[in-house]
Structure formats: C-alpha cells, structure tokens
C-alpha cells in the first residue's frame, strides 16, 4: 500500500481551513449587518423624533432618552435592576427545574404524560396578567413575581427537554439495553447528552420570558423593580425616563438570552449548528 505523504493531506487541511473561516465570515457578516441595521434605526428614530414626532411628546428621540438615563444615574437603575433580576432568576431556576423534572418523568413513565401534559398546556394558556392579582392576594413579598416568572418558562423548557430526550440515537439506546442497561441507564448515558441542544434552545427563550413574568408581577405591586419604576414614571409623566426603563429592560432581556446561548454553545460544541 502506498504511503501517504503530507502533501496528500494538504487539500483536506485547506478545505478544513476554508470551512472554518467561512463559518467565521458568516458570523462576522451577521454581526456587521445587525450593527448597520441598529445604527440605521437609531438615526431614523433621532431624525423623526426632532422633525416628525416632536409635537407628540410621547416618542422622544434617542439622544433625549440617553440624556435622561445618564442624569438618573446608576443609583436609580441598579436597585431596580437588582430586584427584577433576582425575581426573574429565582423564577427561572424553579420553573426550569420543574420543567426538566417533568420531562424526565414523562419519558420514563409515559402514562403520567397523558395526564400531566394537559395540565402543562393549560398553565401555558393561562394569561399571567389575569392570575397576577390572585397571586398578589394569596402571597406576599417577592413570591407572586417569582411564581409568574416560573410559570412563564415551564412550558417552553418542558417542550425543549422532551424533544431532546426523545431525539436520542436509537442504536445507542439499543446498545445500552444489549449490555444489560435499563431505561435509567439509557437516560443518563444517552438521552441526557442528546437532549442538551434542544434543552438550551428552550432555556434561551425562557430567560427573557422570566424577565417578562417578573416585570408583570411588579405591575401588581412592589417596592422596587423595573416594573414598579416604569409605573411610577408613567404616572409622573416622565416620558423619557419611561422609555429609558423600557430600553434597559430590553437590553437585560437580550443579555440573558445571549448569555444562555453562549453557555449552551460552549457545552454543546459537538452539536451541528443551524445556519441563520
């Protein structure tokens, strides 16, 4: 058999480098395109705020919003951000823990799924703005906000975890069974790893959903938080401050989404990436 020389491997190496740099180029182009679109939106908003929307007094230009945010300072934003993040993070943890536990239970005991999955769907269909006042009457402190944040994430994570657990390679499952392993061995050895990409897809969506649930809970009452600050600024007719709080909330939701996606990508480097 003829020996393989380093030169024979060069084309494969070059193709590998082209694939690597091609993927990076796609990411760079996406970032550049997104940045250009964002800057263009801000410029159009600024011009419209000074020329078209100046008389409305409801949509201030970005420069006025940023100026108000700077004048309010960190001492105004941080206590409210800290409160909302604490409520959302607690609800996110409890909601996802419940969802993952239910997903594992459904896979291991299919009879339970037929009954409890309907309950999960019903909880997802319940408008949290309607059950918020009831929770505010029953519970005190941060509990209503935490519960609303948890309810906002359970169904999304449950579906992601279920899809992931059931996407395990059938050959691997059969091999575990051939060596004497039962359903729990299949779960720990095969299904858990296979579920990570779909699970993190659900967790990404759950992160901003938990923020939304916590803020809606704050609308029902509270001492601090972004929702409370937004209600107070609306009542005081502080339009620029209201927009500033809304932008800060949007940025926090995007940050939680991005961090969850980053963690998921770092833990699932073996999973194929979907081009967007």
Word description of this protein:
- The structure is a single chain.
- By secondary structure, the chain is an all-alpha fold.
- Helix content is 82%, strand content 0%.
- It folds into 2 domains: 1-59; 62-267, Orthogonal Bundle (MetI-like fold).
- It has helices at 6-51, 62-72, 74-108, 110-125, 128-138, 143-165, 170-178, 183-219, 226-235, 239-267.
- The longest helix is centred in the N-terminal third of the chain and has 46 residues, at 6-51.
On the 0 to 100 scale, the average pLDDT is 82
- The CATH class of the largest domain: Mainly Alpha
Gyration radius, rounded: 24 Å
CATH superfamily of the largest domain: MetI-like
Please mark out the parts with pLDDT under 50 across 5 or more consecutive residues, or reply none: 1-6, 8-14, 16-26
CATH topology of the largest domain: MetI-like fold
Number of strands: 0
Q: Give the oligomeric state of the chains in this entry, treating copies of one chain as homo and distinct chains as hetero.
A: single chain
Quickly count the domains. Answer: 2
Number of DSSP helices? 10
The proportion of residues forming helix, as a percent range, comes to over 70%
State the major sheet.
none
| Class computed from helices, strands and strand pairing | mainly alpha
The helix-strand sequence is HHHHHHHHHH
The CA-CA distance between the termini, in Å, is 44 Å
Beta-strand content estimate: under 5%
In the CATH classification, which architecture of the largest domain applies? Orthogonal Bundle
């Amino acid at each position: 058999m003829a020996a393989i020389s380093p030169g024979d491997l060069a084309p494969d190496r070059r193709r590998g480098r082209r694939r690597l740099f091609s993927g990076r180029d796609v990411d760079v182009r996406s970032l550049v395109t997104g940045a250009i679109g964002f800057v263009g939106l801000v410029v159009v908003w600024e011009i419209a705020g000074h020329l078209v929307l100046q008389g409305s007094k409801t949509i201030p230009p970005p420069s006025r919003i940023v100026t108000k945010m700077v004048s309010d300072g960190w001492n105004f934003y941080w206590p409210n951000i800290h409160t909302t993040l604490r409520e959302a993070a607690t609800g996110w943890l409890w909601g996802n823990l419940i969802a993952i536990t239910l997903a594992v239970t459904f896979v291991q005991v299919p009879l339970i799924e037929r009954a409890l999955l309907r309950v999960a769907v019903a909880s997802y269909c319940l408008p949290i703005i309607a059950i918020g006042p009831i929770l505010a009457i029953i519970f005190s402190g941060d509990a209503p906000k935490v519960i609303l944040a948890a309810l906002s994430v359970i169904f999304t994570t449950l579906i992601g975890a279920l899809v992931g657990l059931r996407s395990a390679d059938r050959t691997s499952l059969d091999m575990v069974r051939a060596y004497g392993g039962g359903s729990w061995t299949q779960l720990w050895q095969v299904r858990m790893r296979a579920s990570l990409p779909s699970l993190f897809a659900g967790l990404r969506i759950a992160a901003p959903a938990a923020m939304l649930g916590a803020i809606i809970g704050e609308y029902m009452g509270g001492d601090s938080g972004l929702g409370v600050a937004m209600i107070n600024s609306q009542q005081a007719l502080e339009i620029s401050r209201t927009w500033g709080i809304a932008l800060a909330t949007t940025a926090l939701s995007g940050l939680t989404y991005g961090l969850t996606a980053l963690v998921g990508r770092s833990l699932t480097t073996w999973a194929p990436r979907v081009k967007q």
